[in-house]
């Protein structure tokens, strides 16, 4: 079910995020019949270009797996319009609203439903949010939703400042703070996995679990995005948001209901229980040239400040001080320019106490977020046949083989669909955002201050800093195959 005559406006429509992620996601929703043919979609940006030019730019990124879906591209593009305007002047917004109102009048819309997506750099974020509220909000006669993208500030103070400017204009239930990791299939699966399986609920605590690891690995460096990344670093880029969000869903208590606010309440409770991060429990690195010299080091990127100490790799341990998790080390690690691209969660269980086997591996539940969604549990079983010995094998749920018929949406598709359905459960609430910054700000201040460590070099294409394995072992993780 979808709403008819919805208006979607994407600000920053000529940028990378809109072109590569948001419009393809809207097309994906249309292709899968989650977006009505009566929707009207505007791209808004400063660049002057015609409708046709705009459509030409975006359609190259659409996914069309079947012949039938190829035919839908033109139908979808008929819903799309481009509108150019300055972000800080009234004119563009006024014209946009005139066009929206004309469309709604033609369709006889009584209660406008307008969704505004800000795919914008942080500098223009507030000016646009103010003007959208002033010129494009339908007021009491309809509903408006504002989707905002990170960065939501760069530390606690800037995040609070941003919030203090947005809050008087946009009510919390009108705002959707997107963290696209919350739209990934395996992340959406965490709540059902944890709370719909009694055997997992029974052992999901420090009595049985020895460590948890959430890791994010990318096989490429900044590749020309250095100017942006250099002011941010890997902790702000993916850890304070994406990995921390995954962590809260993995470790929070059971929400009192499946409602968005119940879920977000539990996430907040969990975040409040995280101990202040210890600066000694951190390993930071920066990539250098690949061993064969073919891939550039971070400092070779011309858009990066010479001599920058920007962190492109970080591993940190954190501890949750509540009855369930006391004493269980939780390792978050994230890095660019590594040997592979992979995001996974590893929950390692204690050894069995019984001494009848010489050596059995620890059980480990692995949830692979990407690529190739999968879940597997490392189990010990008897080697089949005459042997009495045990071996470790995987109890394996790989989605591509188990769920052949299911379509797994892209993260942005899944989240925009939630916005259209007014479901806030996979979006970050204001208090959640504030606590996540309170947690990371002191650590970032230390790392970026005069006492901060020099990042350990690691080669482009390697597993990360060579100290990593020791760091992991010190934090309770046991390597095993
Ligand atoms: C973004 C970061 O939020 O997430 C990027 O800014 C990163 O640096 C990206 O590459 C990773 O997202 P995904 O979905 O490709 O894992």
From TrEMBL:
Pathway: Carbohydrate degradation; pentose phosphate pathway; D-ribulose 5-phosphate from D-glucose 6-phosphate (oxidative stage): step 1/3. One of its GO terms (biological process) is glucose metabolic process. InterPro entries: G6P_DH (IPR001282), G6P_DH_AS (IPR019796), G6P_DH_C (IPR022675), G6P_DH_NAD-bd (IPR022674), NAD(P)-bd_dom_sf (IPR036291). It is an enzyme of class 1 (oxidoreductase). One of its GO terms (cellular component) is cytosol. Keywords: Carbohydrate metabolism, Glucose metabolism, NADP, Oxidoreductase. GO terms for molecular function: glucose-6-phosphate dehydrogenase activity; NADP binding. Its EC number is 1.1.1.49. It comes from the Eukaryota. It catalyses: D-glucose 6-phosphate + NADP(+) = 6-phospho-D-glucono-1,5-lactone + NADPH + H(+). Residues 9-189 form the Glucose-6-phosphate dehydrogenase NAD-binding domain. Belongs to the glucose-6-phosphate dehydrogenase family. Catalyzes the rate-limiting step of the oxidative pentose-phosphate pathway, which represents a route for the dissimilation of carbohydrates besides glycolysis. This is Glucose-6-phosphate 1-dehydrogenase. It comes from Eeniella nana (Yeast).
């Amino acid at each position: 079910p979808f709403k008819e005559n919805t208006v979607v406006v994407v600000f920053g429509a000529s940028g990378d995020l809109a072109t590569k992620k948001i419009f393809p996601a809207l097309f994906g929703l249309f292709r899968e019949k989650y977006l009505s043919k009566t929707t009207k979609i505007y791209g808004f940006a400063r660049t002057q270009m015609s409708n046709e030019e705009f459509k030409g730019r975006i359609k190259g990124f659409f996914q069309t797996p079947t012949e039938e879906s190829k035919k839908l591209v033109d139908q979808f593009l008929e819903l799309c319009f481009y509108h150019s305007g300055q972000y800080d002047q009234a004119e563009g917004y006024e014209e946009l609203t005139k066009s929206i109102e004309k469309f709604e009048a033609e369709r006889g819309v009584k209660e406008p439903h307008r969704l505004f997506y800000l795919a914008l750099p942080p500098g223009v974020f507030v000016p646009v949010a103010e003007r959208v509220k002033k010129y494009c909000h339908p007021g009491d006669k309809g509903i408006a939703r504002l989707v905002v993208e990170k960065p939501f500030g760069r530390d606690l103070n800037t995040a609070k400042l941003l919030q203090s400017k947005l809050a008087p204009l946009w009510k919390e239930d009108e705002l959707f703070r997107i963290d696209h990791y919350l739209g990934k299939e395996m992340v959406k699966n965490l709540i059902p996995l944890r709370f719909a399986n009694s055997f997992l609920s029974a052992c999901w605590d420090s009595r049985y679990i020895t460590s948890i690891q959430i890791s994010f690995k990318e096989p490429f460096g900044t590749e020309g995005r250095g100017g942006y990344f250099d002011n941010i670093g890997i902790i702000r880029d993916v850890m304070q948001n994406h990995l921390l969000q995954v962590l809260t869903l993995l470790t929070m208590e059971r929400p009192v209901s499946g409602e968005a606010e119940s879920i977000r309440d539990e996430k907040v409770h969990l975040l409040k229980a995280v101990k202040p991060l210890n600066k000694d429990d951190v390993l930071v690195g920066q990539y250098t040239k690949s061993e064969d010299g073919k891939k550039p080091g971070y400092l070779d990127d011309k858009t990066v400040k010479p001599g920058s100490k920007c962190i492109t790799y970080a591993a940190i341990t954190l501890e949750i001080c509540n009855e369930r998790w006391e004493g269980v080390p939780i390792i978050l690690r994230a890095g660019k320019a590594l040997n592979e691209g992979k995001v996974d969660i590893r929950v390692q269980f204690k050894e069995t106490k019984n001494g009848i086997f010489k050596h059995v591996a620890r059980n480990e539940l692995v949830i692979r977020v990407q690529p190739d969604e999968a879940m597997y549990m490392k189990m010990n079983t008897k080697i089949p046949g005459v042997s009495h010995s045990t071996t470790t094998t995987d109890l394996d749920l790989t989605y591509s083989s188990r769920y052949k018929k299911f379509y797994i949406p892209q993260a942005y598709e899944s989240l925009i669909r939630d916005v259209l359905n007014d479901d806030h459960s996979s979006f970050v609430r204001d208090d959640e955002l504030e606590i996540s910054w309170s947690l990371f700000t002191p650590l970032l201040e230390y790392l970026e201050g005069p006492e901060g460590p020099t990042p350990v070099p690691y080669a482009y294409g390697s597993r990360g800093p060579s100290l990593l394995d020791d760091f992991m072992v010190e934090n309770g993780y046991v390597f095993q195959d």
